[in-house]
Amino acid sequence: MSRRTPTGPALTRRALLQRTLLGAAALGLTGCDRLSENESVVRLLGCAETLNLRAQRLLAGRESLAVEYPASMISPVFRPNGTVDPQTALYRQLAANDFSDWRLSVGGLVQTPLELSLDTLRTMPARTQITRHDCVEGWSAIGQWTGPVLGDILEQAGVHRSARYVVFHCMDQLDGAHDYYESIDMVEAFHPQTLLAHSLNGEPLPVGNGAPLRLRVERQLGYKMAKYLKGITLVEHFDDIQGGKGGYWEDRGYTWYAGI
Amino acid sequence: MPQHASDQNSTRRLRHRLPVRAWHWINLWCLIVLLLSGLQIFNAHPALYWGSASSFDAPWLEMYAMRGADGSVHGITALGPWQFTTTGFLGYSDESVRGFPAWATLPSYQFLSMGRIWHFFFAWLFAISGALFVLYTLLTGHFRRNFWLDGRDWRGLGHDVIEHLKLRFHAHSGKYNSLQKLSYLGVVFVALPLMIVTGLCMSPTINAAAPWLLDLFGGRQSARSIHFITAFSLVLFAVVHVAMVLLSNPLRQLRAMITGRVPRSPSSSDQESSS
């Protein structure tokens, strides 16, 4: 066996290391930016979303409840985010007469499509919960939400066996061109805390927070909780809806699973 | 048989075993990506609070921009009641309003969703490799040899502190001194796990699965603050760690952490091993 000198292989490795470090420095930020725009890199990194979903479902199960807070912890102002005053013709017109003409449609893969007025929704059995809203940006606010449990409405409509997702269609357009929309799976849709909230802190939902009706999915981040609802459809897949990624923000690069 | 003498015929002795070296370099890349993408995420809302919800008018740390009387924009960093002008670095840099500057975030421009995608991928890598490393240290005796402080280490602590203050290091001996052991113990078994746990605390689904964890850290916004503070304590550790390497025969240290071996030379082996 040839006796390896201490310097020989180490020098080669050192040279290699130096070259690697220089290369990394030269690539620098532009390299990182380019990686962030490379479709294969994004797809590879995106694998973590599947891991997040699987691991969190395993840990949290179907039924674990989001933390509910005492009334004393309600945030003085529930910060509105995203659209705060929809300017679409439909919304302006419905808002002009206090949403008395507004109807929530429930359709798609259901046995009985529904058209629910605000009065109907307000007189249905409701759940009230004080929960924390976590924005994907990092801030949190606590509010008291009241509204029918989504699962009850879905049961009333009779969900078809083939339905895998519930898609929420909204009346606002953040970019002035595309209706906001979102989707959740059946586990989250039938979660006892998933509400169609018509009230915040005991008052009808303010416009900034999604009047007349918004979704609450308490185990996920804020962008899931669609405001200004106009319709719900049950679907097998969402490939053919807008950008095909299952939501307004998802079409713009955000992960569909918003549990973390 | 001495633990480092596994390669008697070679001119070099084993300093770091493969799992230690692999973990060290995987960790380096994970922590760099996690830090840069973490700052990207932080920049989406560059303010920190204590408790469950955000008290928007009273964050304990906040970075923002303000237009001065002369029309120019200043970057401001507010820490509790104190305000500092940090134009060009925090609050306002590259002619845009942003917490940390472009060179410190991944990607460089404001792109929260991409920052999150980088962060979570490397968080998995970091958590899995970290868990395997901790298992390795516990199962192989690495923990007892390199992390655990025995009576002699505790008694030598004062001496080690003084030696370090005099910038006299014995880092290339086979054994770690008590200060090294304490800092590695703190990083591997406190700071790194704390990063993972406080990170998980920011997930609403994990909050539902383990509400007690949220109580442990005093609420979601507290967990976010602790995540941020711990990240900076790790940056501080990295700075000191690299400084130590640079101050104590850097090429030899670097080679030891890459190849695992250090030269067996008369001036370094026996005397140092006993220090």
UniProtKB/TrEMBL annotation, chain A:
Protein name, per record: Molybdopterin-binding protein
InterPro entries the UniProt entry points to: OxRdtase_Mopterin-bd_dom, OxRdtase_Mopterin-bd_sf, TAT_signal
SUPFAM superfamilies per record: Oxidoreductase molybdopterin-binding domain
PROSITE patterns the UniProt entry points to: PROKAR_LIPOPROTEIN (PS51257), TAT (PS51318)
From TrEMBL, chain B:
Annotated SUPFAM superfamilies: Transmembrane di-heme cytochromes
GO molecular function, a single term: heme binding
Coiled coil, from the record: none
Location(s), subcellular: Cell membrane
Signal sequence annotation: none
Membrane topology: Multi-pass membrane protein
UniProt KW Membrane keyword: yes
GO annotation terms (biological process): respiratory electron transport chain
Protein known as: Uncharacterized protein
